[in-house]
Amino acid sequence: MSREKLSSQEIAEALGALAGWEMADESTAIEKTFRFSGFPQAFGFMAECALFAEKIDHHPEWSNVYRTVVVKLSTHSAKGLTKLDFDLAAFMDKAASHH
Amino acid sequence: MSREKLSSQEIAEALGALAGWEMADESTAIEKTFRFSGFPQAFGFMAECALFAEKIDHHPEWSNVYRTVVVKLSTHSAKGLTKLDFDLAAFMDKAASHH
């Protein structure tokens, strides 16, 4: 089930498959800072991720200052990390690579 | 000049013409929290503001969690508030009203 809280072991494996994401909020969230060449690239990235987030009904906490986007992912209903967070993280990494 | 730092008197007048914006960071910035009916509305608002921000080459610091968008405006080159901040604030209020 994609909204079931992952175990520490599952989280470690999922994190190991990604680059640049770090644990946050006492291991209930993961965070990453993305940097782009300018604001249009940063916001283009956000727009692409927003469409995906809406599609999977799982949304990021994120902030943007010019060419930087800081993202935090967590599943509040599970009070921790689920497969959805890692699906969204993987999508974001892929999206960032072409903006 | 739109990138010239405004006086306290000018800031008070400009703030008085807006609703819901508050001074922040020792009067070098203004902040507002916008709430929408859902994520698509919140992100639609951000997309509209992003296009305007790029057009006037003046960008917000902002964060989004689901249906909430928190915005901070300041002109770093002037180390304070300029007409650009209030132009962007007024645009954001107008954009928020139809999302």
Automatic annotation (TrEMBL), chains A, B:
CDD domains: PCD_DCoH_subfamily_b. It is an enzyme of class 4 (lyase). GO terms for molecular function: 4-alpha-hydroxytetrahydrobiopterin dehydratase activity. It holds the Pfam family Pterin_4a. It catalyses: (4aS,6R)-4a-hydroxy-L-erythro-5,6,7,8-tetrahydrobiopterin = (6R)-L-erythro-6,7-dihydrobiopterin + H2O. Its EC number is 4.2.1.96. Keywords: Lyase. One of its GO terms (biological process) is tetrahydrobiopterin biosynthetic process. Belongs to the pterin-4-alpha-carbinolamine dehydratase family. NCBIfam families: PRK00823.1-3. This is Putative pterin-4-alpha-carbinolamine dehydratase. It comes from Rhizobium setariae. The lineage of its organism: Bacteria, Pseudomonadati, Pseudomonadota, Alphaproteobacteria, Hyphomicrobiales.
